[in-house]
Design goal:
By secondary structure, the chain is mostly helical. The chain is about 75% helix and about 0% strand. It is built from 20 helices and no strands. The two termini are about 25 Å apart. Its main location: endoplasmic reticulum.
């Protein structure tokens, strides 16, 4: 009964927000609802993670405070869109709360506290700006997730850079986080400069800008922060042992297969079917699973590098930058579906985010010695969702699906197959134990501690639920 009431309230609010956006002449992605509840999911997952995990860092608790502000801003913005009685000053309430909590609880200083409050306040308007900048590409919920992720990234990066200036990171995951933050910041600078200054959209200025950012900002800045070469650190991490080298070789082969599949589809000049697109989901599972089991920190670093690379490639496609611009556009044309109606191709980024989200939300798990046995299932929540669940739903829905859910093209048979396949995989892991599963990918003895920690702590269940809800909405809306 309560669930039905909540669903009706969300449905009604979604219609009102969509009407508000239409009145403002904002064109969202066609054929999709506003997706309001997506705007609550990322902040909620971070908040729950901060208060359920005993070993989170102060930086993570700071992110949780900012998430509280972003959550409040989403609620107030939706209330404002749904009712004309909501006053403008109510938008200030979440930002004031964010400032007070950052200053008195997190104790990060007055300037960072003010910046956090301003970031919380600006989130609502930033969503509108993004929807205007990328018409037909996003729903309101998707735009909210992207803006919240961007704000959290920029704010935590700034705080972490200041902290690292006085304390050089020692653990692998902390060093990897710093490298990723500065590297992705460099990619964002290139994207911003290219969007703001059209002169950079020709080959010579663009590649000159890219080299200047990489070798004039990213590498030197990281060298100062780490007191060592970031390139040598990555190479040492890569060459530390033979299993890691074999893993990278395996990833390279999988990447080659993906490129070959795209090239074959381009040469055939045929639009890729839903089933063909789901093969990439299966390939993602094949890539991520060995990394999660064997090399959590290295996979964390690699996933961030791939995010930066995909963003850079999408920029090349959008501005038609030779020599890859035309090839990337051809690949986009044959693999685009109704969700890619706008100028930006977000499907590859969504797929990567779906697989990596648990790892990005809780990277500290990689620093724990027993992370495989105790935390592998939460880290695999994205793979279970997109690799097993979403793929099963698409394949079975295409083959045997007859009864469609109201207002959608998705079938009840596909949904049932998705749930059944995910439950089957989880029950198999529990029944046979982690040790057998791990030995499929590891050359070393897993040890009995992995078997006795199969039943992960109950506090992780809500984390899995939040992660899976985010991932499902990213893929389905």
């Amino acid at each position: 009964m309560i669930v039905e009431v909540i669903q009706r309230a969300l449905h009604s609010s979604s219609k009102r927000v969509q009407s508000y956006l239409n009145e403002e002449y904002i064109i969202t992605r066609p054929g999709a609802s506003a997706g309001l509840w997506m705007s609550f999911l990322l902040p909620t997952a971070i908040i729950l993670g901060a208060y359920s995990c005993h070993n989170v860092s102060e930086l993570y608790r700071t992110a949780a405070t900012l998430s509280l502000g972003l959550l409040g801003t989403s609620v107030v913005f939706i209330a404002k869109a749904c009712s004309s009685k909501t006053h403008e000053y109510t938008l200030i309430i979440p930002s004031v709360f964010t400032y007070i909590r950052l200053y008195f609880y997190n104790k990060i200083g007055v300037w960072f506290s003010i910046a956090g409050g301003f970031a919380s306040y600006s989130a609502g308007e930033a969503v509108i700006l993004l929807l205007n900048a990328a018409p037909k590409s996003l729903t309101y919920g998707e735009a909210s997730v992207l803006i919240q992720a961007l704000i959290l990234f920029l704010f935590t990066t700034a705080v972490n850079l200041v902290n690292t200036w006085h304390n050089i990171p020692v653990q692998c995951v902390n060093t990897a986080t710093l490298i990723l933050q500065v590297g992705i910041l460099g990619v964002l600078l290139i994207c911003a400069a290219t969007c703001m200054f059209p002169d950079f959209r020709t080959p010579l200025p663009f590649y000159g800008l890219t080299l200047a950012v990489i070798f004039g900002f990213v590498v030197p800045f990281l060298h100062i922060l780490l007191q060592a070469s970031p390139i040598l650190w990555i190479l040492q991490l890569l060459l530390a042992n033979m299993p890691r080298i074999w893993l990278v070789t395996y990833w390279a082969v999988c990447s080659g297969l993906a490129v070959l599949a795209v090239n074959v589809q381009i040469q055939g000049e045929q639009q890729a079917s839903t089933v063909i697109r789901k093969y990439f989901h299966i390939l993602a599972v094949a890539v991520f699973t060995p990394g999660l089991i064997r090399e959590c920190c290295f996979l964390y670093l690699a996933s961030g590098v791939v995010l930066a690379l995909i963003t850079a490639l999408e920029l090349l496609r959008v501005i038609h930058m030779p020599p890859l611009g035309e090839v990337l556009e051809a690949g986009f044309t044959v693999f685009a579906d109704e969700k890619d109606a706008g100028p930006i191709a977000l499907t590859p980024i969504y797929l990567l985010a779906a697989c990596s989200l648990p790892l990005w939300l809780y990277p500290s798990i990689c620093s724990e010695e027993i992370y495989v046995g105790q935390h592998l299932l939460p880290l695999m929540s994205g793979l279970l969702t997109i690799g097993i669940g979403d793929t099963a739903a698409s394949i079975f829905g295409t083959w045997i699906g007859k009864t469609k859910w109201e207002g959608t093209r998705k079938t009840k048979e596909g949904t049932f197959a998705s749930i059944l396949c995910q439950m089957t995989v989880i029950l198999m892991l529990i029944y046979f134990g982690w040790k057998i599963f791990i030995q499929l990918f590891s050359s070393e003895d897993a040890g009995s501690r992995f078997h006795q920690n199969v039943m992960y702590p109950s506090s992780k269940l809500h984390g899995i639920i939040c992660q899976k809800i985010i991932i499902l909405n990213i893929l389905d809306y």
